[in-house]
Amino acid sequence: MTRATIDRRAVSLPCRLSRATGSPIAARAVELRTHGLRVVAQRPLALDETLRFELGDGDLRIEGRARVICQERPDAYALRFVALSEQMARRVHGVVAADDEVRRTARLIA
């Protein structure tokens, strides 16, 4: 197994992004990494913008703050975690390293 396989997991999870002001932005997380995530957003994001995120549904909830580091397509962005509690970091690592049963529960598509 390569490092790239260990460090990231393809997912399909609802994600809500929030700025200091304005309405939340609906998005979908398409990849989760130990240090960030890739999202497809319904509204534009700005490079270097820091956002609060709420990821997941049902039993899986991950939240924190992340910075937009790259725009990959007009609607796709890479975000790096900048504030993630220890509990949330454990959840991220658990999903990235998840076994098949956990992946099904989290609706992972990898």
Q: What attributes does this structure have?
A:
6 strands, 6-stranded antiparallel beta barrel, Thrombin, subunit H, globular, 110 residues, alpha+beta, disordered N terminus
Question: How does this model look, in words?
Answer:
The chain has a 6-stranded antiparallel β-barrel. The model is unreliable at 1-5 (pLDDT under 50). Strand 1 (8-18) and strand 2 (25-33) form a beta hairpin. With 110 residues, the chain is of the alpha+beta class. The protein is built from 3 helices and 6 strands. The protein has helices at residues 3-7, 86-96, 100-105; strands spanning 8-18, 25-33, 36-41, 50-55, 62-73, 76-83. It has one domain (3-99): Beta Barrel (Thrombin, subunit H), CATH 2.40.10.
Secondary-structure blueprint:
Elements: H1 3-7, E1 8-18, E2 25-33, E3 36-41, E4 50-55, E5 62-73, E6 76-83, H2 86-96, H3 100-105
Which sheet architecture does the biggest sheet show?
A: 6 strands, antiparallel, barrel
Distance between the termini: 14 Å
Order of helices and strands: HEEEEEEHH
Count of individual domains: 1
What is the fourth-level CATH superfamily?
predicted glycosyltransferase like domains
Rg on CA atoms, Å: 13 Å
DSSP, total strands: 6
CATH topology: Thrombin, subunit H
**Spatial ordering of strands, largest sheet:** 1-2-3-6-5-4
Helix content: 10-25%
Proportion of β residues?
over 45%
Tell me the structural class: alpha+beta
Tell me, what's the shape?
globular
Q: Give the low-pLDDT segments.
A: 1-5
CATH architecture: Beta Barrel
CATH class reads Mainly Beta
Mean pLDDT: 86
Number of helices: 3
